[in-house]
Recover the amino acids of this structure.
């Protein structure tokens, strides 16, 4: 399986996802500020993966505290730095809350014992993320069948999680079970996670994948070339409205228009039960140059006005089912998701 992120000798090692697929380069984070920068600059991305990175970041930040008198202030500093890296993915905040709970219940221990507790918790978050993805895959494959062509968007694979993936977990499980599973990957402008990461990951696993530009999806759906759409999620409101990579909403509308099922695959820690609807989900706006350039090359006027919302919200009525590690939720999501809580 792909090594997205790992804890090794009190360092955090991550594959630099900005460089894939041209180069497979690994970076080492030696302190929590480097972890925060890695999340902000997309060295590591994908909701569950940034949650795991943040948990390791907390463990590393506390590991480097030498004076017990500074403990609470230092913990708060580490927590706040990691918390402001990216606003949309629920998994980041979930992981930080998990680390905070361990900190609170263990802060009276000796400093070495507290440090070890936090490292152990981060390792557990990593391990459990992979097992959640495998369960999502196992549930999700029951919605698919032999010979289907699955359209996915962005990268919701091993690279976006601790391993195996959510949407790509469903695809991996279906590919192992049924003959003739093929994938269309939307390129996912502006950051090209589909073209760069999903195509790379699936090709490594010998899963047949065809790259399309984002604006080709409607045409292919209308021609009957797409059986089903499966994507991941960054944050799901309690009513099922789902924030995911920009372009997901357009695919969902096109899927409904063409009578194609639209499935969201995500662990329950992506669900924000405190939000009643998707309107409350904070949407990250990223740097304008991501749109003005492709792989560092200008594609427009250098100072052209740009919008760059990184995510959109797909209203629940466009989503056929939400595949979680606890089972498949169907509308009405307020009730079905609540049952899995
Ligand atoms: O900006 P990114 O690359 O972090 O966005 C990632 C996505 O939108 C994924 O689809 C989502 O995080 C689910 S990953 C299992």
């Amino acid at each position: 399986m792909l090594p997205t992120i790992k804890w090794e000798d009190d360092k955090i090692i991550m594959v630099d996802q900005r460089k894939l697929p041209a180069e497979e380069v690994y970076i080492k984070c030696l302190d929590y500020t480097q972890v925060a920068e890695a999340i902000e600059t997309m060295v590591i991305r994908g909701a569950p993966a940034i949650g795991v990175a943040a948990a390791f970041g907390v463990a590393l930040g506390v590991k480097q505290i030498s004076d017990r008198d500074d403990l609470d202030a230092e913990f708060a500093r580490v927590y706040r730095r990691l918390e402001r890296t990216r606003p949309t993915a629920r998994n980041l905040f979930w992981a930080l809350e998990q680390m905070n709970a361990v900190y609170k219940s263990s802060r009276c221990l000796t400093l070495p014992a507290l440090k070890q507790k936090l490292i152990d918790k981060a390792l557990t978050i990593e391990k459990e993320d992979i097992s959640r993805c495998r369960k999502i895959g196992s549930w999700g494959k029951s919605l698919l069948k032999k010979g289907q062509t699955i359209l996915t968007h962005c990268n919701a694979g091993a690279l976006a999680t601790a391993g195996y993936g959510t949407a790509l977990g469903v695809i991996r499980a279906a590919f192992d079970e049924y003959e003739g599973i093929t994938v269309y990957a939307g390129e996912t402008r502006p950051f090209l996670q589909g073209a760069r990461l999903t195509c790379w990951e699936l090709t490594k696993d010998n899963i047949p994948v065809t790259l399309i530009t984002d604006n080709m999806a409607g045409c292919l759906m209308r021609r009957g070339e797409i059986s089903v759409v499966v994507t991941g999620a960054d944050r799901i409101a309690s009513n099922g409205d789902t924030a995911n990579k920009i372009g997901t909403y357009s695919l969902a509308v096109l899927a409904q228009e063409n009578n194609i099922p639209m499935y969201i695959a995500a662990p329950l820690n992506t669900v924000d039960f405190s939000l009643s609807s998707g309107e409350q989900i904070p949407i990250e706006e990223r740097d304008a140059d991501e749109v003005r350039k492709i792989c560092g090359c200008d594609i427009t006027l250098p100072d052209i006005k740009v919008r760059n919302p990184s995510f959109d919200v797909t209203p629940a009525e466009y989503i056929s089912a939400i595949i979680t590690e606890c089972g498949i939720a169907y509308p009405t999501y307020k009730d079905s998701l609540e049952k899995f809580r």
The CA atoms of residues 229 and 262 lie 5 Å apart. The pocket of MRU is lined by residues 45-48, 89, 154, 156, 160-161, 166, 193, 231-234, 244-245, 310 (CB under 6 Å). The first strand starts at residue 5 and ends at 8.
